[in-house]
Amino acid sequence: DPVLSLEGITKTYAKGSANPVAVLRGVDLTIQPGEVVALVAPSGAGKSTLLHIAGLLDTPDQGQVTLAGQALTGQSDRRRTRARREDVGFIYQFHHLLPEFSALENVVLPQLANGVARAEAVTRASDLLSRVGVGARADHRPAALSGGEQQRVAFCRALANEPRLLLADEPTGNLDPATSDQVFDALMTLVRSTGMAALIATHNMELAGRMDRMLRLEAGQLG
Ligand code: ADP
Ligand code: ADP
């Protein structure tokens, strides 16, 4: 089964106004387990909208979103929220870590919210942080970490509950080029070692070229 399937997705903002914005005009996409797909799009093309629809944060006007075998368009908010919590991890350009908690706690907390026992959550968090080279920084708060370290911690948090699908919106867009390269390598190592599928939006063609497949979002369609 594909991890994610989008069929005939359309989305228009400001419908009924003088200037409706037809952002998605029939998007089809299938991602298999373990596949890492690059999403390349000019600013304003609808990349965030597409990621939000794929991750069940937003609903399409038409079309079907199927996540891990469950057709979720038109299902209750409760069911969509549960599917999102169980199956999807999000990464953004900015880390959105909780400032008053340590790096470790930031990776532990979402696991506790998901019913994982504390000892197991701590073990899993420590392991994830070590795998991306920030194990020695686990007890620091985000403000004491560099931008690249903060972003690595955010990756660990997104993967802490072992989602089947990772959705990333410019995950290294806020970093200088050298840091961006290293942090991207760390992300790829993590994703590959878990075997999860990922859809990663980036403006960086070099990084996009290192993924399994590259899709462009243009004029509301993927190609
Ligand atoms: P990207 O992430 O590719 O920059 P977005 O998906 O954020 O693009 O937005 C695509 C287009 O839709 C942009 O023109 C944006 O201004 C518009 N847009 C996004 N969200 C809304 C909204 N809630 N209401 C109206 N227009 C929106
Ligand atoms: P991100 O990529 O982090 O989602 P954006 O700037 O694309 O950041 O959008 C932030 C939020 O604002 C999103 O929820 C998006 O739907 C909304 N948004 C974006 N563009 C518009 C717009 N033109 N009008 C209203 N809301 C918008």
From TrEMBL:
Keywords: ATP-binding, Cell inner membrane, Cell membrane, Hydrolase, Lipoprotein, Membrane, Nucleotide-binding, Transport. SMART domains: AAA. One of its GO terms (cellular component) is plasma membrane. It comes from the Bacteria. One of its GO terms (molecular function) is ATP binding. GO terms for biological process: lipoprotein localization to outer membrane; protein localization to outer membrane. Gene3D superfamilies: P-loop containing nucleotide triphosphate hydrolases (3.40.50.300). The keyword Transferase does not apply. The keyword ATP-binding applies. Residues 4-222 form the ABC transporter domain. Its EC number is 3.6.3.-. Belongs to the ABC transporter superfamily. Macrolide exporter (TC 3.A.1.122) family. This is Lipoprotein-releasing system ATP-binding protein LolD. It comes from Thalassovita autumnalis.
